[in-house]
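can u do me a favor
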């Protein structure tokens, strides 16, 4: 060992200046305030940030007389505890007129979107945050008709792999149907969205309820690795809430399937129409309850069966209901479906 290697290493003095790096695009020559995140410097315009963020505006105000402001490179210096990537994303939105340049919520765009939600929440910049929340609401709507429209768009991608097939005159689940697979390749995991909304205290029913249901559509049973992947972002309280809510939803769905609406036809029609309805109703068991796990997506299953029964006219042709009683039976099925959807907030306790 030579003498030089035995010398103790030189320690950096704590008062030595940090090696700062100017951001390549967000360091403006005419800026008048410097934000630092670690070693990254952003030289920006105080008036612009103050206009859109009350948090920044307060930080830029003149400090108390006994506190000396930090000056760096001739400008007021504000040291932030955010990452450079987060501040970069936020500043790009501010300098781009508060416009979110994200055409679609996907697994690729979600890291940027989630960063913007956190930053816009922290710095109280409302317009871009509201825009992002609206996109979340559009992707997972609370209104049933809008949810149906989203599912229709997904179904059009799966026309070669339908949810139900006809076997021996009965509608039975297609064993090759896998709901949401094509969509899962594109859209972010609903559990990640739930966790982010909780973190930012954006916990409205309008946002959370359809997200919990969307998560339930991708979950067959508990204990498998896929389930762990799907619900891993949730807090312990939300995991418990999800498990209990999923059980409630599927149990209520199963109870409605086995309960024939009798009578849902006028008494004078009970001999023929009521008898036909009681013959028809057990056929729903084949479609809904064939799997040991029960229905994976009851809202969609009810709609598919209603559409199928309405389109092929089996209630009148096969089960001899008059047209009026057949329509009453279909309306009863619609009400049960709507009841399940409207009770989701209660099932998942959100």
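np, heres the sequence
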């Amino acid at each position: 060992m030579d003498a030089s290697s035995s010398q103790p290493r030189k320690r950096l003095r704590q008062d030595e200046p940090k090696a700062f790096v100017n951001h390549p695009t967000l360091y403006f020559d005419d800026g008048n305030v410097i934000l630092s995140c670690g070693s990254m410097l952003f030289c920006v315009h105080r008036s612009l940030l103050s206009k859109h963020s009350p948090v920044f505006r307060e930080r830029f105000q003149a400090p108390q007389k006994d506190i000396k402001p930090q000056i760096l490179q001739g400008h007021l210096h504000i040291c932030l505890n955010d990452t450079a990537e987060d501040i970069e994303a936020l500043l790009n939105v501010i300098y781009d007129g508060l416009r979110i340049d994200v055409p679609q919520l996907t697994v690729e765009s979600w890291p940027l979107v989630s960063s913007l939600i956190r930053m816009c929440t922290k710095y109280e910049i409302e317009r871009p945050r509201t825009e992002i929340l609206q996109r979340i609401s559009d992707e997972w709507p609370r209104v049933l008709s809008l949810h149906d429209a989203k599912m229709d768009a997904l179904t059009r991608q799966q026309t070669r792999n339908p949810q139900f097939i006809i076997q021996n005159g009965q509608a039975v689940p297609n064993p090759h149907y896998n709901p949401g697979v094509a969509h899962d390749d594109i859209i972010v995991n609903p559990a990640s969205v739930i966790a982010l909304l909780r973190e930012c205290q954006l916990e409205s029913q309008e946002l959370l309820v359809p997200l919990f249901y969307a998560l339930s559509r991708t979950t067959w049973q508990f204990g498998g690795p896929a389930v762990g992947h799907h619900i891993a972002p949730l807090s312990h309280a939300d995991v418990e809430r999800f498990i209990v809510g999923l059980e409630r939803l599927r149990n209520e769905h199963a109870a409605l399937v086995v309960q024939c609406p009798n009578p849902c036809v006028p008494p004078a029609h009970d001999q023929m129409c009521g008898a036909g309805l009681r013959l028809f109703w057990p056929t729903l068991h084949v479609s809904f309850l064939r799997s040991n796990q029960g229905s994976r997506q009851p809202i969609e299953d009810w709609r598919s069966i209603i559409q199928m029964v309405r389109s092929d006219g089996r209630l009148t042709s096969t089960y001899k209901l008059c047209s009026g009683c057949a329509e009453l039976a279909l309306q009863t099925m619609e009400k049960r479906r709507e009841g399940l959807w409207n009770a989701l907030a209660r099932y998942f306790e959100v």
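Strands lie at 21-27, 33-37, 40-44, 71-72, 75-79, 164-167, 170-173. hope that helps!!
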